[in-house]
Amino acid sequence: MKRSHILLFGANAFGTGLLAPVLSLVLLSHGATMENLSLCIGIFAVMVVVLELPSGILADLIGRKRIFLISACFMMANYALLLFSRHFLMLAAACAMQGIGRAFSSGSIEALEIETYLCEHEGRNLEKINSTMAVIESVGLASGSIAGGILGYLDVSYSLLLILAFILQILILGLAAWFVKEPPRKKSPLSPVLQLKEQVRGLYHSLLHSLPVTTIVLMSAACGMLLCTVEVYWQPTLKTFLPEQLGWIFGVVTCLGYLGVTIGSKAAEAVMQSKRTVFTQEKSWRTYWILRFLLILSVAVLGFTRRVWLFPVLFVLVYVVLGAGNLIENTIFHGTVASSQRAGMMSLLSLSLRAGGLGTSLLGSLIISGLSLPYVWLLLPLFSALLIGGIMIFHHRSAANCRTAKAGC
User: Fold this and answer.
1) Residue 42, exposed/middle/buried by CB under 10 A (0-12, 13-18, 19+)?
2) Beta-strand (E) ranges in 39-169?
3) Phi, psi of 165 (to 5 degrees)
4) 76-90, 112-126, 167-181 — which is least confidently predicted?
5) What is the percent of the chain where pLDDT is above 70?
6) How many CA atoms lie within 13 A of 311 on its CB side?
7) 48 neighbors 354 (Cβ within 8 angstroms)
8) Quick one: CA torsion of 130, 135, 140, 145, rounded to 10 degrees?
9) Cα–Cα distance between 8 and 15 in angstroms, integer?
């Protein structure tokens, strides 16, 4: 991976992590109230969900680099509006810009980087580029979160933080425009409308006829449920038994989680590239299922620990297992999906992940209102286990039927 591309991906992840630890506080200091805070975040979420898949399809049609540059412009508009916002309407517009920017950036530049790697290495060692990208993202998010927390502490108006985020976005735009090269796309004789229809039809066909793609899209929703369970409920759970003088530990735990993804991803890469271990397709799937069920177990155990020293250890373990499983998932996925559909499929994965998170939000609210917080850590992993178990059975039966049909021919 080129150094300029490493800097681009790292800066993009750093910018995402920069506002993560103080986003609600930034909104509250620039025009939001406690009554409409959730509405601001909801506007962002709706824009992402609505535009996630269309933006991926557009990236496949008109170019991944072009869509990423558009996303950078929307993010710049978001930070500028936030900086000068003093009332709800401008804040709502900023949140909409942020949602559009996030949707357009999802999968666009990553798809181009993976395709470049596949061309240069003739489709070999796909796990290496996936691992490299995962490590860059994790380190960028971790360092961005730490920097955002420090800047937020130094400047309670968050103006310095927003100015830095805006300047960083200019850097990202410049890096992408100058250093990212995309081969010219073949002109299609079809009209733009017909091209769009063909692209949507191709995605639908892949979902129906490619078992690995279908399985991974379904698994993305199941993993989204588990990931959202951790992200939403780990802080209130830790707070119930954390001594008051250790309140600073929340930022440390968040950073350790990002680093856990790096550890898991690099460990899985080392195993997959080991000469002693030959990772056939069957072995990859078997390891993938094991890691996903280990993820369920580690999430459940995390929710029931009541020792301050053990909680960060288990929290890191959750993300180590997640990172290892994600590397195998991405290797299978990108080795299967067609290049002409890569960005659209990556957006579909992201949409599925968000759908799983939404399911957790709804179920979690019902569980807490009817029972209590500890039941979240019991029932949501249990539901995820049933869902993943069902997907695994579906995958194996479908694969067996496919082998039988081929043998019959």
Assistant:
1) middle
2) none
3) -60, -40
4) 112-126
5) 92
6) 22
7) yes
8) 120
9) 11
Are the beta carbons of 229 and 112 closer than 8 angstroms? Answer: no
What lies within 8 Å, CB to CB, of 107 at 6+ separation is 56, 59, 342, 343, 346, 347, 349, 350
Nearest to 108 by CA among 152, 59, 57, 176: 59
- Per DSSP, 242 falls in state S
Q: How far is CA 12 from CA 117, 261, 262, 397, in A?
A: 20, 17, 17, 41
Chain segment 300-352, per-residue pLDDT in tens: 999 888 888 899 999 999 999 999 999 999 888 888 887 777 777 888 888 88
Distance CA 165, CA 163 (A): 5
DSSP symbols for 34-77 = TTTHHHHHHHHHHHHHHHHHHHHHHHHHH-HHHHHHHHHHHHHH
> How many other CB atoms are there within 10 angstroms of residue 381's CB atom?
22
Token pair of 376, please? 């979240």
221: amino acid identity, one letter: A
| Two tokens, residue 83 | 């900086």
- Burial of 290 per CB tally in 10 Å (0-12, 13-18, 19+): middle
With a CB cutoff of 8 Å and minimum separation 6, the contacts of 174 are none
pLDDT at 409: 40
Q: How far apart are CA 336 and CA 51, in angstroms?
A: 24
Dihedral sign for Cα atoms in the order 295, 228, 354, 68? negative
Helices and strands, number each (H, E), in the chain: 15, 0
Residue 45 banded pLDDT, cuts 50, 70, 90: confident
Which residue spans within 336-387 are E strands per DSSP?
none
> How far apart are alpha carbons 151 and 164 in whole angstroms?
10
- pTM across the whole model: 0.78
Q: Which of 200, 203, 221, 210 is nearest to 333 (CA)?
A: 210
| Contact present, 57 and 200 (Cβ < 8 Å) | yes
Tokens of 249: 């530990």
- Of 150, 153, 351, 156, the closest CA to residue 255 belongs to 150
The 8-class DSSP code of residue 184 comes to P
Distance CA 179, CA 176 (A): 6
Count of all residues that appear for the chain in the document: 409
